[in-house]
């Protein structure tokens, strides 16, 4: 291709990468072809990855869902400062990008096997794939295998809520933690975790507003995670006197059942525990991540390195009971911050089944890419992983 002073010459035509040469079609026809034939999200990404010009014209549809604004608060006690438009739930997808020409070598973990990329649907013209280090990386999708592993919705706005109290007004920052959506024959049904109390609200197609979700014997709040599985919502509730999962069908019917109790390990209670729901091909899983410091008989820390242990439970949908798993089979579970998802090992080249992968430094942020360097936690071994020695991030 002709160059002028070290730069590509602008010929007025789209430039295709990966040895495809130049396209003879004008820009408007290229855009028309994209909009007509690239009817999936990944098709749009492929086009934008190989076409170095007119990327802004090759717009990928903005995949967002519009819902009424949350109207759950008693306006005799609370009020908003401004008029807020309808709520918008944006789609986020997690892809695994793997070099299809890469052959496994013994230099692992010197070279990453692949990258997990989270793409935020709120920026249709700004899809950024950014590595934590050494900086931005450019992928040619024609030379890479791309797999969609996980997707969820969110509402990124934050509102300030003033609540009347005996001493005046109390300010609260209101945000939507997570949105889960189920398509039905009549339209979409959505469930979300919202506000500072982490309550649940349900929206059904055709209704004018969200409805607070009433759970028998519960004052509400402290929900930390929601997922969809086989047409039902599952919400995880964690509080001091209650630890359970709530199942909600598309009609709003609720069934609640208790989670396994917190267990002591070597007669010691974990210093901290994270819990996440994971929808997988083998069932609905509850992932429990324990943090434990080693102490002597006087309860003085003798080793500052935190030990981590995982336990995985599978839901018995008939008995509404959690059954502890000793093996994941061919399944690989990946956990980054509060996000956890699962995929068959065959879909993740270089990864092992029956393993849980997680990172020492939780850096899976919005619009970010993570090089995969963690060592796996194997359920069949049931041993501790030492953070300092086992991870290369």
UniProtKB/TrEMBL annotation:
<dbReference type="InterPro" id="IPR051304">
    <property type="entry name" value="SCF_F-box_domain"/>
</dbReference>
<feature type="region of interest" description="Disordered">
    <location>
        <begin position="1"/>
        <end position="21"/>
    </location>
</feature>
<feature type="compositionally biased region" description="Basic and acidic residues">
    <location>
        <begin position="1"/>
        <end position="12"/>
    </location>
</feature>
<protein>
    <recommendedName>
        <fullName>KIB1-4 beta-propeller domain-containing protein</fullName>
    </recommendedName>
</protein>
<dbReference type="InterPro" id="IPR005174">
    <property type="entry name" value="KIB1-4_b-propeller"/>
</dbReference>
<dbReference type="Pfam" id="PF03478">
    <property type="entry name" value="Beta-prop_KIB1-4"/>
</dbReference>
<feature type="domain" description="KIB1-4 beta-propeller">
    <location>
        <begin position="103"/>
        <end position="360"/>
    </location>
</feature>
